[in-house]
Amino acid sequence: MNIGLYTLPYMKNTLSISETNSTNALLWEMVRANKLPEGFTLQAGFQTAGKGQIGNSWESAAGKNLLFSMVLYPVQIAPDEQFLVSQLVSIGIKRVLDEYAKGITVKWPNDIYWDDKKIAGILIENSLQGNRIKAVVIGIGLNVNQREFVSNAPNPVSLLQIIGKRQNRTQLLEKISKSILSLYEELDADKIRLEYAKALYRKDGFYTFSTDTESFQARIVTVCPDGELVLETDEGKRKKFYFKEVKFIV
User: Reading across the β-sheet that carries 132-142, which strands appear in turn?
Assistant: First the structure.
């Protein structure tokens, strides 16, 4: 059930609601029912079934954090390069958070970290039509004013915990939306990929990674245009992984 529907007059194409099960799920319903303008954003004060990548849940106290989804129609991006959307969204968020704190990085593929703790998660869902991307819904959860986390999530952190000050969530949403849309409108793929590479969590040095069958020491070599992570082990062997095939040991 969705309650408290209202628009934010100073943010074009933004709709805010008090509660929903998932902003991504509701925005997909709205996209299918009507042709929403590109960049249309749906924000919720609380999600009863907020989700992360591959079914993970997302803890967020009501009215404390930013929970929103944005729709784009990136027909100019080839399906095999759709990871570019993930990269530009990650960079868009990082650029804003850099104004508040040092140590913000992007943990491959698109978690936003402060030091070794997760401050934001991104869930990107695509709709394909033939050989092009028809629509993309980008769900973002950013921990802003939550003081304590009670779930079994291993390493959450909020902006309040980092800098000790509460933030205006609406102003923060406006900054992030503008940052993402600015990168999207320019859509300089080489620039985005370079900035993403420089922003990567643990981009320098050897760290422990694990798969279903092994743990090993490796360094990040590069991230391919399709999102594949290339690692080099401490023995000089190169390994390639797609999302969920390997994980950092934090």
Answer: 6-7, 14-20, 41-47, 66-72, 132-142, 117-129, 111-114, 104-107
Between 1.20.58, 1.10.10, 1.10.3680, 2.30.30, what CATH number should domain 207-248 receive?
Answer: 2.30.30
Residue spans in the chain of domains classed CATH 2.30.30: 207-248
Q: Which of 160, 41, 25 is nearest to 92 (CA)?
A: 41
Identify the CA nearest to 221 among candidates 212, 213, 230.
230
Q: Of 66, 72, 46, whose CA–CA distance to 125 is shortest?
A: 72
123: closest CA among 186, 53, 74? Answer: 53
> What does the pLDDT look like over 42-84, one tens digit per residue?
999 988 876 554 445 555 677 789 999 999 999 999 999 999 9
83-97 and 169-186 helices cross at what angle (nearest 10)?
A: 140
CATH architecture of 6-199: 2-Layer Sandwich (3.30)
How far is residue 171's CA from residue 192's CA, in Å, rounded to a whole number? 24
Are the C-beta atoms of residues 105 and 200 closer than 8 Å to each other? yes
Burial class (CB in 10 A: 0-12, 13-18, 19+), 220: buried
Burial bucket for residue 217 (CB in 10 Å: 0-12, 13-18, 19+): middle
CB atoms within 10 A of CB 246: 19
pLDDT in tens, 149-199: 877 777 999 999 999 999 999 999 999 999 999 999 999 999 999 999 999
161, containing H or E segment: helix 159-163
